[in-house]
């Protein structure tokens, strides 16, 4: 579920009005003592108007029971007073209805439906009907598989359906505003979206590395057909795991953003320093929320400097080591279970735990560029100003400096700024060499002129 432009889609308002009308009639009928059959007077009603909610109902074709549970989960967000007003009106006429269940939010005072609410409205005292409602909250139902909604676990010893029905935040946004916003960066969502305006032609790599990336791109493009049309779904491990290893600036992050751009998927770089918490259990909680969001929206997850958590596990000397290893094991488990594309980046392949290396579908080396590759990167990085002959001569003079692609881009930017500040229309060899000096000094290396 990528972000939808709400201005390009019909509003959900008309469908929500009709949907809540169905829910209102159901509540009034149940409180009035009527026996309501799914195919009776109250039927599934919606407008096929091109809105996200209309498209969802048309494509998913939920049963009446699924439709009502879905609306109950959505109602507190779209029309918070609906359930409260109808229940209060019914109580004034007919007395108390403990069967309705529900919780009241301490701050907003909004009535929040529970599984008991759904069971009462849909089944009343019919035991089999109540069991059918309970089955909607099982892990194999599409509510759970697609991350739409869930039933909160009840308190110890409480009735099985006493937990609140909770709709995922991105589904709420999609079904109300028609747009899904990216969660803000935080400990519970330790990832930032990364993207590029460049294309594959701008990535300079040896042919062997490009061939491996093409294989990965083919999997990302055709995996659904492989799983569904070819029937490989039950026989394949979920998802795809790739290790990109090589020095900083060799194109690992760039390649990841290109994979996302080519397949229409958003790419999120996971900040492992934020993932790890000093509090026991918090790391698992942070990772769980991230992977759930990624699963619902089919994101590509990019773990930069992955050796921070995926490196060789320590021997257990104290409780801190034991919990650190537990965090690594949990993260490895979530990566293996993720049904999308996970990319781990490391400066050195040897830093990654050998036990985990065997679980990668692809291991791709991003080598530092040789003179010919550096010349090509210089051609793409330097601004196209000045005469072609002078530019070619400049590139020939600087391609011997052993820089990565990222370093060359930094130098080209530095040289262009120097030229602009001096009022010139093209960069000089002196501008570039000064930039090379600054870049090498950042890496703790000594600059030696090639002239």
Automatic annotation (TrEMBL):
<dbReference type="GO" id="GO:0005524">
    <property type="term" value="F:ATP binding"/>
</dbReference>
<protein>
    <submittedName>
        <fullName>ATP-binding protein</fullName>
    </submittedName>
</protein>
<dbReference type="InterPro" id="IPR027417">
    <property type="entry name" value="P-loop_NTPase"/>
</dbReference>
<keyword id="KW-0547">Nucleotide-binding</keyword>
<dbReference type="InterPro" id="IPR050221">
    <property type="entry name" value="26S_Proteasome_ATPase"/>
</dbReference>
<keyword id="KW-0067">ATP-binding</keyword>
<feature type="domain" description="AAA+ ATPase">
    <location>
        <begin position="238"/>
        <end position="370"/>
    </location>
</feature>
<dbReference type="InterPro" id="IPR003593">
    <property type="entry name" value="AAA+_ATPase"/>
</dbReference>
<dbReference type="InterPro" id="IPR003959">
    <property type="entry name" value="ATPase_AAA_core"/>
</dbReference>
<comment type="similarity">
    <text>Belongs to the AAA ATPase family.</text>
</comment>
<dbReference type="GO" id="GO:0016887">
    <property type="term" value="F:ATP hydrolysis activity"/>
</dbReference>
<dbReference type="Pfam" id="PF00004">
    <property type="entry name" value="AAA"/>
</dbReference>
């Amino acid at each position: 579920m990528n972000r939808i432009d709400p201005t390009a889609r019909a509003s959900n308002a008309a469908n929500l009005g009709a949907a809540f009308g169905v829910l209102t009639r159901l509540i009034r009928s149940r409180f009035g003592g009527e026996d309501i059959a799914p195919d009776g007077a109250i039927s599934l009603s919606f407008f096929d108007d091109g809105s996200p909610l209309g498209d969802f109902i048309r494509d998913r074709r939920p049963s009446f029971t699924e439709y009502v549970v879905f609306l109950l989960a959505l109602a507190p967000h779209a029309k918070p007073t609906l359930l409260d007003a109808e229940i209060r009106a019914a109580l004034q006429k007919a007395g108390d209805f403990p069967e309705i269940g529900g919780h009241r939010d301490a701050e907003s005072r909004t009535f929040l439906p529970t599984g008991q609410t759904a069971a009462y409205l849909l089944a009343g005292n019919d035991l089999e009907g109540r069991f059918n409602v309970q089955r909607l909250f099982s892990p194999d139902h599409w509510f759970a598989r697609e991350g739409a909604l869930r039933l909160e676990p009840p308190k110890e010893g409480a009735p099985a359906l006493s937990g609140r029905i909770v709709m995922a935040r991105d589904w709420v946004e999609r079904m109300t505003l028609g747009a899904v916003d990216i969660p803000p960066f935080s400990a519970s969502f330790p990832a930032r979206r990364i993207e590029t305006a460049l294309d594959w032609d701008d990535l300079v790599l040896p042919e062997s590395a490009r061939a491996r990336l093409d294989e990965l791109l083919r999997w990302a493009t055709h995996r659904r057909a492989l799983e569904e049309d070819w029937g490989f779904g039950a026989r394949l491990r979920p998802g795809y795991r790739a290790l990109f290893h090589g020095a900083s600036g060799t194109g690992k992050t760039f390649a990841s953003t290109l994979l996302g751009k080519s397949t229409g998927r958003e790419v999120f770089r996971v900040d492992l320093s934020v993932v790890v918490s000093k509090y026991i259990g918090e790391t698992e909680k942070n990772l769980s929320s991230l992977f759930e969001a990624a699963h619902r929206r089919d994101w590509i997850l990019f773990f930069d400097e992955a050796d921070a958590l995926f490196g060789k596990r320590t021997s257990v000397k104290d409780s801190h080591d034991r919990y650190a290893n537990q965090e690594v094991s949990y993260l490895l488990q979530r990566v293996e279970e993720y049904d999308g594309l996970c990319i781990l980046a490391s400066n050195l392949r040897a830093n990654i735990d050998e036990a985990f290396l065997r679980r990668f579908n692809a291991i791709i080396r991003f080598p530092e560029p040789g003179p010919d590759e550096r010349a090509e990167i210089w051609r793409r990085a330097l601004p196209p100003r000045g005469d072609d002959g002078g530019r070619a001569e400049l590139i020939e003079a600087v391609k011997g400096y052993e820089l990565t692609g990222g370093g060359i881009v930094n130098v080209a930017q530095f040289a262009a700024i120097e030229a602009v500040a001096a009022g010139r229309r093209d960069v000089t060899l002196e501008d570039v060499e000064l930039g090379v000096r600054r870049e090498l000094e950042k890496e703790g290396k000594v600059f030696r002129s090639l002239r």
